[in-house]
Amino acid sequence: MRKLILQVQLTLDGFVAGPEGQMDWMWLSGDIDPAGMQKVIALADSCDTILMGRKMTPGFVKYWEGVVDNQPDSGEQPLAQRMVNMQKIVFSKTLTSMPGRNLRVENGDLATVVRELKQHPGKDMIAYGGATFAGEIISHGLVDAYYIFLNPVAIGQGLPIFKGTTQLKLENHTAYKSGKIVLEYLPVRKEG
């Protein structure tokens, strides 16, 4: 069975974005170093499908397609190629289509559709957030592995992804020169 991996950038005080969705804080600790970038690429390579929410998708698509199309010498090109070429499924209750390469919109029940997708053959699936979407897949118990990129930045207020008690088991951690730490967690499943 395929797994759903959640990869998110998180502040020290537990937010994935500022109160209005700002993500400028991610650059305060500098770019991720080459070893960190290789981790992000390895995670992407372990998957063949990206799951996203409607709110995050336009910025995600515009950014990565812009790197592929307009920045051939960018150090992000290897990751951008993966982001553009990978199948993307966008969950929306209001839209039936969105622009973007290799992208389709899903209007079905999130939990039902993700459980069905896990039964399909293929590599694992990965979700990169936004706050609302990540919170929903967490609250439905759909995440099989968490890769939290903890940034050495606190922003005081913002958008969390954890709405209630979520117990996780630390599997691994790696610190990078930038001060970022990748925390790899598995959910603790309750028996019965």
Mind sketching the topology for me?
Blueprint: E1 4-10, H1 34-45, E2 47-53, H2 57-70, H3 77-85, E3 87-91, E4 103-106, H4 110-119, E5 124-127, H5 131-139, E6 145-150, E7 168-175, E8 181-187
Parallel strand pairs: 1-5, 1-6, 2-3, 2-5, 3-4
Antiparallel strand pairs: 6-8, 7-8
Helix pairs in contact: 1-3, 2-3
Written account of the structure:
This protein has 192 residues and is α/β, with parallel strands linked by helices. It has one domain: Dihydrofolate Reductase, subunit A, CATH 3.40.430.10. It contains 5 helices and 8 strands, in the order βαβααββαβαβββ. An 8-stranded mixed beta sheet has the order 4-3-2-5-1-6-8-7, sandwiched between helices. Helix 1 (34-45) runs parallel beside helix 3. The longest helix has 14 residues, at 57-70. The chain starts with a strand and ends in a 5-residue tail after the last strand.
Q: Which H/E pattern describes the elements?
A: EHEHHEEHEHEEE
CATH architecture: 3-Layer(aba) Sandwich
Strand order of the largest sheet: 4-3-2-5-1-6-8-7
Which structural class matches the secondary elements? alpha/beta
Q: Give the overall average pLDDT.
A: 93
Q: What's the structural domain tally?
A: 1
CATH fold-type name: Dihydrofolate Reductase, subunit A
Low-confidence stretches: none
Highest CATH level, the class: Alpha Beta
End-to-end separation in angstroms reads 20 Å
What value does the Rg take, in angstroms? 16 Å
| CATH level-four homologous superfamily name | Dihydrofolate Reductase, subunit A
